Amino acid sequence: MSKREEKGVNSNDKLLLVTSNENKFREISEVAKSYGIKIEWLNIPKFEIQADNLEEIVRYSAITIYQVIRKPLIVEDSGLFINALNGFPGPYTNYVRRKLGLEGILKLLNNVEDRSAYFKTVMCYVSDKEINLFTGVVNGRISERIRGEKGFGFDPIFIPENEERTFAEMSTEEKNKYSHRAKAFMSFLNYYMRENRKT
């Protein structure tokens, strides 16, 4: 019996994930499989606003897309927060990755002793009944150099707590044991299945 059957989720329910990032879809799908849930992928860009926190960004995006397609959906946004840089790049992570890249972040931390950082994901679930946010955080540190060929984004320079490998040196299954994104999605799934028990 799957976790879905144990929890009594309605088999007619479908989860729609909005993202233009195939890697994010794969990671989330891997977690969903263990719950016996299939995720449908809506491959479109998020409608993003400039804001200083992930919650505001993802909430706006999810509501905007829901108003167009009128189907229950999930939108996520993630950020890398580096303590020595006062939380930078945070909600600007994707932009900074495109403009500075991995090498740019490593240069900013050149000769910096405190390399502690954390990844944070915020997911927003919107339906005709509700708007809810779910958060996942993983603490770790920035590596001294780029390591690994798996993963995406800043994975090659982020080492989660209690590990010596970067995310980019792990398989998707291994990464999901630590991942901020997996934590946020599992938090959502636990809520979703509680709220959708069969009567």
Description:
The protein has 199 residues and is α/β, with parallel strands linked by helices. It has a single domain (3-195), classed as Maf protein (Alpha-Beta Complex), CATH 3.90.950.10. It is 35% helix and 23% strand. It is built from 7 helices and 7 strands; from the N terminus they run H-E-H-E-H-E-E-H-H-E-E-E-H-H. It has helices at residues 3-7, 22-34, 54-69, 93-99, 101-108, 172-175, 180-195; strands spanning 15-18, 39-42, 73-82, 89-90, 116-126, 131-142, 158-160. Strands 1, 2, 3, 4, 5, 6 and 7 form a 7-stranded mixed β-sheet that branches. The longest helix has 16 residues, at 54-69.
What's the multimeric state?
single chain
SS elements, strand count: 7
Average per-residue pLDDT, rounded, comes to 89
The third-level CATH topology is: Maf protein
Poorly predicted parts: 1-12
Count of individual helical segments? 7
Largest sheet: 7 strands, mixed
**What separation lies between the terminal Cα atoms?**
18 Å
Radius of gyration: 17 Å
CATH class: Alpha Beta
- Tell me roughly what share of residues is in helical segments: 25-40%
Structural class: alpha/beta
Enzyme class: hydrolase
Cofactor: Mg(2+)
GO molecular function: dITP diphosphatase activity; ITP diphosphatase activity; metal ion binding; nucleotide binding; ribonucleoside triphosphate phosphatase activity; XTP diphosphatase activity
EC number: 3.6.1.66
